[in-house]
Amino acid sequence: MGQILNKGRLFLLVLVLLLIASACEKEIVRTDKAERTIPLKTTENKVFANEKIKIGFSMDTLLEERWIKDRDLFKEAVEALGAEVEIMAANGDDALQISQAETMISQGIDLLILVPHNAESTATIVHKAHLAGIKVIAYDRLVKNADIDLYVSFDNEQVGEMQARAITKLVPKGNYVYIGGASTDNNAHLFKKGAFNVLQPLIDKGDITIVYDQWTKDWQPVNALANMKAALKANDNKIDAVIAANDATAGGVIQALMEQGLAGKVPVAGQDAELAAAQRIVEGTQSMTVYKPIKALTEKAAQLAVALAQGENVDENQKVNNGKIEVPSVLLSPIAVDQVNIDDTIIADGFHSRQDVYQKVKE
Ligand code: BGC
Questions:
Q1: How far apart are the CA of 143 and the centre of ligand 1, in A?
Q2: Which atom of ligand 1 lies closest to the CA of 140?
Q3: How far apart are CA 126 and CA 61, in angstroms?
Q4: What atom of ligand 1 comes closest to residue 153's alpha carbon?
Q5: How far is the CA of 284 from the centre of ligand 1 (A)?
Q6: Which of 104, 261, 326, 350 has its CA 20 to 30 A from that of 22?
Q7: Which of 151, 191, 219 to mutate to test the pocket of ligand 1 (most atoms within 8 A of CB)?
Q8: pTM score of the predicted model
Q9: Residues with CB under 6 A from ligand 1
Q10: Nearest residue (CA) to ligand 1, atom 5
């Protein structure tokens, strides 16, 4: 008897819960003709309601050439998929990046895609987005110690390996300077790790000596210039090769070398295939850069963002540990570029025009 009563209560409870759930899922819409019910606007239902998926893109900065390409190409790729994107850039300000992301979250975006200025402090953005039921993708740079849903980038360790391989080929022995990126950016650590994967055995053999090794605050070329000046001074200009974490910092390094009449004599590696770097390569003041096809990155990121926002499962079997979880990841391949293959890579891809690259040299 007691069991029957319990079953009856259980049945009633389930019924009440079902009624509450269905009341929550529907809103009444009055039309001219009749009253009809439609499902509440959850992201999945946007597809049925024919509403556009809205992606929020929170960027660290737009100060470097590459990020302008990322912004424009990502917008293009998202729109080509029938979705829309709101973009905000924080110009290297952690607090601003957090408040911009909060604004987008409160405006009801369906998914947040994030280029963190600071790998650690942006974890709070991920947490806030999740509380609002919004998934988060880390774009190009990883967010550390957060339950990030997906990470889309290049193989950044490989970037550093490519730089060191190219430079050690030119200078197998000698005094090396390493000009790192911003220590707050996880990528800067990966680039350095990659470079030292190649350098360390040569250091151990005694062929290479690292005479200066410094991070560059906020990736700013002026800080790289100051670091390189300090490196030259501390070593009486006896420097044989430089690996700079990107083209912007390589620009600062080359300016410092120029002031000492050493530009073009000391091989320098960079990364990003910025136009200024491509021009320096054909002129001979920079030895190489690493080209990361931004279009491929934006297209992949847009496709995954829209799929995730629609509630689809995206199965990415590569995993990257961010200190908290194994983040499902997509890592695209970078390409080493020097004077020999510049035409067949960045120019052939339309990343820069031939005219722009060779603008300052007579062919
Ligand atoms: C990116 C580089 C860029 C650097 C500075 C890194 O996280 O991977 O491509 O040059 O940030 O913005």
A1: 14
A2: 8
A3: 19
A4: 8
A5: 23
A6: 104
A7: 219
A8: 0.87
A9: 64, 66, 140-141, 181, 185, 187, 219, 246, 272
A10: 219
Q: Strand 318-321 relative to strand 326-332: parallel, antiparallel, unpaired?
A: antiparallel
Handedness of CA 113, 117, 118, 119 (dihedral sign): positive
Which tens digit of pLDDT belongs to each residue from 58-71? Answer: 999 999 999 999 99
Each residue of 96-142: pLDDT tens digit? 999 999 999 999 999 999 999 999 999 999 999 999 999 999 999 99
Question: What is the per-residue pLDDT across 73-107, written as a single tens digit (0 to 9) for each?
Answer: 999 999 999 999 999 999 999 999 999 999 999 99
| Residue 352: closest CA among 341, 361, 343, 360 | 343
Write phi, then psi, for 31 (nearest 5 degrees): -115, 175
